[in-house]
Model the fold of this input.
Amino acid sequence: MVTGFLGPNGAGKTTTLRMLLGLVAPTSGGALVNGVAYHDLPDPTRAVGGVLEASGFHPAGTARNHLRVVATVSGIDYGRVDEVLELVGLGSDRDRKVGGFSLGMRQRLELARALLGDPQVLILDEPANGLDPQGIAWMRGFLRWYATQGRVVLVSSHLLAEAAQTVDRVIILAGGRLVADGRLDELLQGATTTVRVRTPDAARLVRVLEQAAATGSVEHAPTSVRLEDADVVVAEGTTPEVVGPLIAREAIVVYEMTSSGESLEQLFFELTEGVDRGGRPMGQPPAPNAPFPGGPDEGVASTP
Amino acid sequence: MRRQVHAELKKFRTIWSTWLILGITAFLVGALTSVIAFAPHGRGRRAVLFPAQGTARWFDSIFSTLSISLTLALVLGILCMTGEYRHKTITPTYLAEPRRGRVVISKLLASGVGGAAVAVAGGAVALVFGFGVVGGGIGTVGRMLTEYRHVFPGVLVAAILYALYGVGLGALLKNQVVAIIVGLGVTVIVEPILVGVVPSVGRWLPGQLADALQSVTASANGIGSGSTNLVTWWEGGLGLLGYGIVLAAAGALTTLRTDVT
Done:
């Protein structure tokens, strides 16, 4: 099972993960892995692998040496070092100095370090950062594969489209609080959708839908109905399973019916609204044709 | 614990700054012994620093340059602790061993080995130099080795304890630059002032403790600062060990407990 740990910037994702890994002490309460605090785990590297941002490497050390030091502490043999380097695709770079590594290569090396102990639980903080598109796809495949091995994967991300493709379960954090926790498909299932119908009889369909909403004769009746075009009706807050039978009952001719399900992104925005960015709203983006602030059009007196 | 110490020693071996420190030690000992050995020997007060060639005091004077190892052992200990924070390798270190006190203890033990290596690097150069001058017809092997035995064991033990002191400073201060400035500042500025102004306190500062420790083997000719206001050699050793352990414990209980972000 891959669990996505999502939230806007400053929601507390990294801090929470670092608490789980014993790097940050909670002000109150505790963070347990398998019911045990990280520093009480008898063999932490084998139980939990942590992939963290801002985890460091001695720039003058080689990738292999960096992992060998960690392997020595955990009593892991050096064969495993070459194995994990191969696994993350750094096999041919293992004797290069880490100082010359790209961000993506460091991220892979960090993953290799976390995998040294073949841990049951893998905790990753923004693992896609710095990876190229192939790297991101590889990481997605890797996390899915790791989860199918009967392991637990907890991954934080702010890339929602990427997370939607990777995770089974989501935990959403906003302003330091839990706002959602559940299977992704279930969270999205209860959500409303927008149904668009193209019909030559648009005005009648609008009446039928409005009537259904007003009388409450059907469940999940639309919350709003509008005419988007002369022949396009848009009903929000309902499902095709509600609209379809109504159309059939009224024998309305339909050319096309589509529904757009709610995405993880919409769900995320709904849940984190107001607490977004720790309560600090983002500024409005400038209008498309507005001059660039401080650009040549501004503050420079134009001579006729 | 064995594994942690092994890992720390492996870090020492793979980090270039360790080899730089050993190289600087060897270079400084080589340069200083040459200067002291071949400076024109003086009369009166100058004779103390530059005695006549081939005499026991001359050899003592040459080998007293080994004290430079202490400063470099101190830097090695400081880098051992603060380098982890500087390069953020402290995160993987704590992930592999979340009990931070154990990390500090393994660093103390490994740095002791590192400090010994620094003393040996300087000692080897001094010994080669000694044989060189004897081969060149100055003094005798017996006299040279006797004076070497007066100086080297004290330097070796003091360098080990200085490295521990460095780890302690690093654990308490965490910041590499600050720790080095404080470590060297105490040796170069604070200590000479305190020794002069408040001798009863000054004699308990690291450099004076190291002098006291070394005095157990040093000949009656006297090396080092030549201070007569030293504690006994074992008080010196225990005091120096105390600096390392107390500072490291204080660091483990305060600065090292803070969040790693």
